[in-house]
Request: fold
Amino acid sequence: MTRFSALSLLKMGLRGQRGWQPQWRSPEPKSAYDAVIVGGGGHGLGSAYYLAKEHGVRNVAVLEKGWIGGGNTGRNTTIIRSNYLFAESAALYDHALKLWEGLSQELNYNMMFSQRGVMMLAHTVHDAQVARRHVHANRAAGVDNEWLTPEEARAFCPPLNIGDIRYPVLGAALQRRGGTARHDAVAWGYARGADALGVDIIENCEVTGIRLDSRGAVEALDTTRGRIRAPRVGVVAAGHSSVIMAMAGVALPLESYPLQALVSEPVKPVFPCVVMSNTIHAYISQSDKGELVIGAGTDAYTSYTQRGGLHIPSHALEAICELFPMFRRLKMLRNWGGIVDVSPDRSPIIGKTPVPGLYVNCGWGTGGFKATPGSAHVFAWTLAHDEPHPINAPFTLERFRDGNLIDEAAAAAVAH
Reply:
């Protein structure tokens, strides 16, 4: 892999960037591959990277209907944590968090990973009881989490108003290993890494149909850039996963909603961590550029639009202004929305489908970004071995038939 010194990069920039190489190729699609990943976000690109690196499957294509990072990977609030309630979820998200800790070195790409801590506020007696339950469950599963008094919460995050609001802060659960990362860097780093291992990344290539052979197994994909044959297809298309899977006759128990976020004008470093509140429905952190990154809840109506109702971010801002009065005069720069696919138990679906050779990784709801490397790692295993990795074995599609649900509605909360 080519490396440049800071001085050589500066010289190339001043010369108009002559000599700079693309981070990944733009190949024409082949007529056939050993495996195809549908979806060029972090989960899909990471799956292709681990397929090639750890399982030796290098004749792989990633098909993206738009551009790399144009979906949910580039439309989220970058929060990373693993303090989910059930042991199965904690294992999956903590696997991801451990991979996050070494991902910049793994990909030789700066993920801007910052373990600044994620603090989840409690405003009612019920909140406090639920939060303490999470703390004890996490510790039992070997995941760090701790309970803070209101005064300890304010000491950890000085801008926090703990008293003079409609819902006073009664305490908080803190995961110190949680934090944030740069969302674009995740997509670009995995894309460059996969490309270097021989994976074809094909943008502007929308899947329009899935062809099955006489046995009912996957045979080929019809796309806007021609037919592509492959015996293994992994669908990682976030909010559109149910649309893709329906092409093969597979119905998924998913609903897709817009999830909105917004950022303020940049200010000097003033906010030291990530703070989330489910009761008053907002969360906030500060980016490396100085913008306050503010998230809201999902819209009330299903939609495939990358936008939502104005009242949703308005309510989030009202909550932020109560929790952090010093931010009341800040101007907002922009807002956006992503499409989240929500399952009945608010947990993902990762595994095989009734169609041989067809695999799915979806249903992440509002928690997809934080799981990126762990999700990709275990999904690559599943594609390579035609069986689940032990970590994703509980997250099968069949659990909805058998009643083995992993109900993470409370832990998912308003998170992202």
